[in-house]
């Protein structure tokens, strides 16, 4: 395998997942990208966290450029039988990071006004999208880890939602690409959350109300590779 090209660290991350009708999810995906299901169910996740030490291989982190909050909306797909993540939006405060990710990874990064604060084990998070190319989106809530560390069974829902080392994206011409990442096993715990505002799924017709399935991860160091075209 070729060397990785980008490193990053994810901090104070919360997986918030809701069930969404599979047909509704499939209608939002391009040709050749199929909704992935578990027991006939599809899931859409809102994932708030902080990025740190974001930099190319062999390059030091740059103050003001290498650390910022990120909030993504995602679902789970298969392309040529391979399971991976499909991102509907990735909201950040850093304009250069957003532009580079859109250009080189064909990911829908968008500028947003964001506020994040952690006091003891509680993370408070708020975001309002200002780049409306994927429609408006706002989120506000607070979350914290609870309980002991988890070791999910490989066949569990927790593993199915999180153990994904591929992402898929598409360019403006509809060509589909695959990106690989690598990290150690997720340091998962259960979580508690209060979500006061969540309109991230509204432009897609997703109803993300009601109690979500929650998981928390304190820190994860990640490596990423260049994309390769799959269709």
> What is the number of E strands?
13
Helix tally equals 3
Biggest sheet features: 13 strands, mixed
Order of helices and strands: EHEEEEHEEEHEEEEE
Low-confidence stretches: none
Ends apart, CA distance between termini:
20 Å
Shape: globular
Q: Could you tell me the strand content as a percent range?
A: over 45%
Helix/strand/pairing category: mainly beta
The percentage helix is under 10%
Oligomer: single chain
Average pLDDT metric: 95
Roughly how many Å is the radius of gyration?
A: 17 Å
Please explain how this structure is put together:
The chain is mainly beta. The protein has three helices and 13 strands. Strands 1, 2, 3, 4, 5, 6, 7, 8, 9, 10, 11, 12 and 13 form a 13-stranded mixed β-sheet that branches. A hairpin with an 8-residue loop joins strand 7 (122-129) and strand 8 (138-146). The longest helix is centred in the middle third of the chain and has 11 residues, at 95-105. The chain is globular. The relative contact order is 0.23.
């Amino acid at each position: 395998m070729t060397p990785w090209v980008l490193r990053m660290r994810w901090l104070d991350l919360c997986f918030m997942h809701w069930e969404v009708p599979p047909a509704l999810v499939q209608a939002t995906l391009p040709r050749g990208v199929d909704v992935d299901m578990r027991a006939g169910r599809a899931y859409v996740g809102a994932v708030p966290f902080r990025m740190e030490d974001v930099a190319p291989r062999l390059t030091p982190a740059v103050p003001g450029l290498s650390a910022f909050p990120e909030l993504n909306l995602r679902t789970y797909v298969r392309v040529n039988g391979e399971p991976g993540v499909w991102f509907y939006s990735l909201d950040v405060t850093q304009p250069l990071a957003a532009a580079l990710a859109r250009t080189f990874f064909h990911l829908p990064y968008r500028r947003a006004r964001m506020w994040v604060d952690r006091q003891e084990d509680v993370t408070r998070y708020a975001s309002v999208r200002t780049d409306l190319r994927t429609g408006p989106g706002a989120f506000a809530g607070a979350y914290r880890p609870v309980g002991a560390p988890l070791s999910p069974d490989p066949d569990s829902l927790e593993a199915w939602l999180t153990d994904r080392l591929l992402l898929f994206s598409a360019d403006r011409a509809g060509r589909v690409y695959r990106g690989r990442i690598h990290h150690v096993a997720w340091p998962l715990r259960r979580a508690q959350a209060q979500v006061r505002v969540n309109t991230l799924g509204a432009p897609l017709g997703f109803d993300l109300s009601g109690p979500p399935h929650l998981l928390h991860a304190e820190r994860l160091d990640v490596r990423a590779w260049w994309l390769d075209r799959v269709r």
